[in-house]
């Protein structure tokens, strides 16, 4: 339908790329002729309406023939046209006549061909002939023509619109379609290609270059893609082609993941696997193979649709290898080895000590023997602390062959053993071994102190030993000075004289000690100044603490930057100056003697300069070095009130929003929680914006507030939120106890068959308590009303019961209280047999029972009576004997006894009659002996009254050494003795006797003896007469009387008492004190 003009030389057509795993096709029918325009060449086409369109190479110009004939093509002189058919596509090439053709090319057609009738224009754009039943992937839109002048020059125009042709669609994911596109004869040109999974053409892959073929890789099988292309030349871009779509072919499914064992035993294995990607085609089955445990060729064991299979009849303790593939294609999974059930491992060897410390020990151990390949063991390390008595406790459980135990005590021995375990069980523990931790480093010594006055060039320093030596004695003390903390002394002494110091200089001294456990912490430093020094410039300021952004304060500490020389006088004041810049004016913000100050009202994020100078009596010193400081971000803003959500009566979930951080990211939140608004305590500290409060009390109001923290500091607390937990079941009953009958308003029906219980009312948790349940071993507990006591009746005597009580409210039943062991009383005891063990004139000793009762303390009661039925209690207690005092002699008394224990009081026994005996006369005083004449004596003694009508008789005895002789027996109270020659060792004594009506005589004890006076000399008669005369005149004669035996014994006892008291005082003073 038009003329075709060619300029330049045409080259051969490039063949499309093919490979083994793809099929290359071009969706062009035999009715279409494709004209190739090479780079640098221009084709001019004149259509039937007279328009001229210029096509610049590289390009492919499709021409459609409705009847399949070759259209006429006119070429310039010196050129020839040739038709080449490749892969079912006919292409026309215009070549110079001198061009050599490939032998495979067909001979050129004749130059004169019949006239070609142009097709209808609509046929150029509505071609729908699809060979091999494939969808079209090309565009039949012609590019815009270029206009030429009469001289053949090309006028400026936009790049042509290319036609997109899909030459090849691959069927695998790693292969991709090849896009063939048009060519333009321009420099700095290209073809941007856009590819997307949707028609909206979101670009995820692009291509820009002069090649006319582009391979898109990494596509997914069985997936529809959309593609378009445009031509560009420099910064000018032509219109895009119409969107073409294509669908990749289906591929075999991906290899399944290795199967996993979900259940195994000694002879069975249950395997399970997941379905892989089917790559566009549904999976129809799975093939499972295994090697029969022989590590040989695999054998099919299952084929089907299920994704789980159970293999039976396997050999115990054998390794099996399995692999699985999908049906669509051969795709083996990775080999997974598993083992059937076996036996527990053998005991491992004892652990070894790898390293030790003050509070830690590192142990390691070996793998036990007898293991098969693939066995996974878990080890348990147990520890026993010496002296605790708790035995071995597990401290580590894992698969590692070493473990570090921390938190141990220093210089302490521990015993260790290790156990191994697999899926079949645990082994026996290894042989225990014992290891010890090392001693700890000692504590810090006391702060150094000065001894004596401070000298200009020396300091005498002393310090105290540490309170804790760390388990080993201190061997060395080290004294350091703050001149880079230089060591000035090292030795065992606790004092040192520091010399060669600078006058008027402040020094910081500290000391630390060393022992076998290591080096201690340094003590508190001692800051001391030597003698005054001349003044000098101050050192630069130092920041004493963190900047407080909220107050806009900056604390400084000039004390650490004192004068180097103060002139021998103390500093009177300091001046601290500040400026906004190094060249700016200085202004004073502090003046005084204090050694610290704060710069207030500072602007955050701004730089400030500070100087300090000191003054004394001589004046002001120079300014110190400049100190620069930039303010930092501030703490975060306060948090809002937290949102409290009640989950359970004892659990509340608190959450809050993150506040403004003020320049530094918030990394921590602190939540305070409490039952009263004024007594909140820190409950949570962490990065999460929420916290779950547990173990709360039901029906209780709780208050909560939150504080945010960033790198600068903690912000203020936010508003307080309040939540009330809902009511719940009551708490457990406390203080359940058995009470006696006296503690109850009502009496017990039978103490041996009843138990009186009393308890305290528990917390109701917001709902009023309506009753209680009492469980004491019966099948159904007893329900009682709202009371705090109850009497259990109809119980077995002397029986133990376990009693529990639980409270009930409107919400439900609370937990039972702790079990109370209560035992009912036994039955009251029978009275024992009463006997009289000994009878006296005024007392009776009674005896009953054979010993204490069988484990139950008993009390006995005696009741006497004197010819009357009235009984009076004279004793009550646990003893088995009692002596009745203050009775009348020779009198008959009646007694009755009864026993009682915790069960109650037993019955009274029959009456027992016992009589007291008669009492003998009392002891007489020593008799009196008077010498009437020579060998004539008169002995007298005191007379006693008759006892209850019974007469009294007396007996006088003479003691001659060891011989006794009765001189008199009768009722008289005196006796005269004649014709006796006395000896110096003769003594006399007398006793009284009671003569009873029945003729029995009761004799009392003898009186003290008295010596018989010796014979007087002849001249003594006158003295006797004189003495008598003196006695007549009223003066008593003086006689030398010897001490008696009783007086001698009393003196001896008194002497022993005085010696004992003296020894006690000496022991107290010299020994005890």
From TrEMBL:
Residues 165-253, 255-346, 347-440, 444-533, 534-634, 638-728, 739-827, 828-919, 920-1017 form the Fibronectin type-III domain. GO terms for cellular component: membrane. It comes from the Eukaryota. The keyword Ribonucleoprotein does not apply. Residues 429-451, 1015-1038 are annotated as: Disordered. Residues 429-439 have a biased composition (Polar residues). Its main location: membrane. The chain crosses the membrane at residues 1048-1072. It is a single-pass membrane protein. It is found in: Membrane. CDD domains: FN3. SMART domains: FN3. The keyword Membrane applies. Keywords: Membrane, Repeat, Transmembrane, Transmembrane helix. Pfam families: fn3. InterPro entries: FN3_dom, FN3_sf, Ig-like_fold, Striated_Muscle_Regulatory. Belongs to the FNDC3 family. This is Fibronectin type-III domain-containing protein 3A-like.
């Amino acid at each position: 339908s038009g003329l075709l003009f060619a300029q330049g030389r045409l080259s051969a057509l490039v063949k499309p790329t093919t490979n083994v795993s793809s099929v290359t096709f071009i969706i062009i029918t035999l009715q279409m002729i494709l004209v190739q325009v090479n780079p640098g060449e221009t084709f001019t086409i004149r259509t039937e309406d007279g328009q001229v369109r210029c096509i610049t190479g590289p390009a492919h110009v499709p021409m459609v023939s409705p009847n399949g004939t070759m259209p006429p093509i006119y070429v310039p002189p010196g050129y020839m046209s040739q038709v080449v058919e490749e892969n079912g596509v006919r292409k026309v090439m215009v070549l110079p006549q001198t061009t050599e053709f490939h032998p495979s090319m067909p001979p050129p057609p004749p130059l004169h061909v019949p006239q070609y009738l142009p097709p209808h224009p609509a046929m150029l754009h509505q071609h729908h002939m699809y060979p091999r039943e494939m969808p079209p992937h090309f565009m039949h839109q012609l590019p815009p023509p270029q206009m030429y002048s009469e001289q053949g020059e090309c006028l400026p125009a936009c790049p042509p619109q290319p036609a997109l042709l899909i030459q090849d669609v691959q069927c695998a994911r790693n292969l991709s379609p090849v896009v063939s596109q048009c060519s333009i004869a321009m420099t700095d040109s290209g073809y941007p290609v856009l590819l997307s999974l949707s028609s909206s053409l979101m670009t995820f892959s692009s291509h820009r270059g002069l090649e006319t073929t582009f391979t898109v890789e990494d596509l997914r099988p069985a997936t529809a893609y959309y593609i378009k292309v445009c031509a560009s030349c420099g910064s000018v871009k032509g219109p895009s082609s119409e969107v073409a779509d294509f669908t990749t072919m289906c591929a075999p499914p991906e290899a399944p993941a290795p199967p996993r064992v979900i259940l195994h035993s000694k002879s069975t294995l249950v395997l399970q696997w997941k379905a892989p990607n089917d790559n566009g085609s549904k999976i129809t089955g799975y093939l499972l193979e295994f090697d029969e445990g022989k590590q040989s060729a695999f054998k099919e064991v299952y084929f089907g649709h299920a994704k789980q299979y159970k293999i039976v009849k396997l050999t115990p303790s054998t390794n099996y290898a399995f692999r699985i593939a999908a049906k669509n294609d051969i795709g083996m999974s990775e080999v997974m080895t598993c083992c059937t059930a076996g036996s527990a491992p053998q005991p491992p060897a004892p652990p070894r000590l790898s390293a030790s410390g003050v509070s830690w020990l590192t142990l390691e151990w070996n793998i036990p023997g007898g293991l098969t390949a693939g066995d996974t063991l878990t080890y348990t390390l147990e520890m026993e602390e010496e002296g605790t008595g708790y035995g071995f406790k597990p401290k580590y459980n894992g698969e590692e062959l070493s473990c570090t135990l921390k938190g141990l005590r220093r210089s302490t021995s521990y015993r260790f053993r290790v156990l191994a375990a697999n899926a079949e069980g645990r082994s026996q523990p290894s042989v225990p071994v014992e290891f010890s931790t090392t001693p700890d480093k000692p504590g810090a010594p006391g702060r150094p102190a000065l001894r004596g006055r401070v000298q200009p060039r020396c300091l005498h320093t002393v310090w105290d030993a540490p309170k804790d030596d760390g388990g080993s004695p201190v061997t060395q003390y080290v004294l350091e000075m703050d001149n880079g903390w230089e060591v000035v002394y090292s030795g065992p002494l606790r004092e040192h004289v520091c010399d060669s110091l600078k006058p008027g200089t402040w020094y910081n001294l500290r000391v630390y000690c060393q022992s076998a456990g290591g080096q201690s912490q340094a003590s508190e430093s001692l800051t001391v100044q030597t003698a005054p020094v001349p003044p000098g410039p101050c050192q630069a300021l130092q920041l004493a603490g963190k900047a407080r952004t909220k107050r806009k304060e900056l604390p400084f500490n000039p004390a650490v930057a004192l004068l180097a020389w103060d002139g021998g006088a103390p500093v009177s004041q300091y001046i601290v100056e500040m400026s906004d810049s190094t060249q700016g004016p200085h202004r004073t913000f502090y003046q005084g003697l204090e050694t610290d100050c704060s710069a207030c009202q500072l602007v955050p994020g701004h730089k400030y300069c500070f100087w300090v100078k000191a003054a004394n009596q001589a004046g002001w010193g120079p300014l110190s070095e400049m100190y620069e400081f930039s303010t930092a971000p501030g703490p975060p803003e306060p948090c809002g009130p937290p949102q409290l959500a009640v989950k359970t009566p004892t659990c509340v979930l608190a959450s809050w929003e993150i506040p403004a951080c003020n320049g530094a990211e918030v990394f921590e939140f602190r939540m305070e929680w409490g039952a009263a608004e004024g007594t909140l305590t820190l409950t949570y500290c962490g990065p999460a914006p929420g916290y779950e409060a547990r173990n709360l009390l039901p029906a209780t109001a709780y208050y909560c507030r939150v504080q945010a923290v960033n790198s600068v500091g903690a912000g203020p607390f936010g508003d307080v939120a309040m939540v009330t937990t809902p009511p719940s079941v009551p708490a457990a009953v406390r203080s359940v106890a058995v009470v006696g009958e006296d503690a109850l308003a009502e009496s017990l029906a039978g103490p041996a068959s009843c138990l009186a219980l009393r308890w305290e009312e528990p917390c109701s948790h917001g709902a009023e308590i309506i009753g209680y349940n009492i469980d004491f071993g019966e099948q159904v507990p007893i329900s009682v009303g709202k009371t705090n006591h109850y009497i259990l009746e109809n119980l077995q005597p002397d029986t133990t019961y376990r009693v529990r009580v639980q409270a009930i409210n409107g919400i439900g039943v609370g937990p039972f209280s702790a079990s109370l062991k209560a035992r009912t009383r036994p039955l009251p005891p029978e009275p024992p047999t009463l006997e009289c063990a000994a009878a006296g004139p005024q007392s009776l000793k009674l005896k009953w029972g054979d010993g204490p009762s069988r484990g139950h303390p008993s009390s006995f009661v005696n009741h006497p009576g004197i010819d009357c039925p009235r009984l009076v209690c004279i004793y009550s207690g646990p003893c088995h004997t009692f002596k009745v005092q203050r009775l009348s002699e020779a009198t008959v008394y009646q007694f009755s006894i009864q026993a009682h224990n915790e069960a109650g009081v037993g019955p009274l026994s029959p009456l027992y009659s016992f009589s007291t005996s008669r009492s003998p006369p009392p002891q007489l005083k020593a008799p009196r002996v008077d010498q009437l004449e020579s060998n004539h004596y008169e002995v007298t003694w005191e007379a006693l009254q008759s006892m209850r009508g019974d007469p009294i008789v007396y007996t006088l005895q003479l003691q001659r050494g060891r011989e006794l002789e009765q001189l008199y027996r009768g009722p008289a109270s005196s006796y005269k003795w004649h014709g006796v020659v006395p000896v110096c060792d003769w003594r006399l004594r007398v006793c009284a006797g009671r003569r009873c009506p029945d003729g029995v005589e009761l004799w009392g004890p003898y009186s003290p003896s008295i010596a018989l006076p010796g014979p007087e000399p002849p001249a003594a008669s006158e003295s006797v007469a004189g003495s008598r005369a003196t006695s007549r005149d009223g003066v008593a004669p003086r006689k030398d009387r010897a001490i008696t035996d009783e007086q001698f014994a009393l003196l001896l006892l008194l002497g022993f008492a005085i010696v004992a008291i003296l020894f006690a005082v000496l022991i107290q003073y010299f020994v005890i004190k």
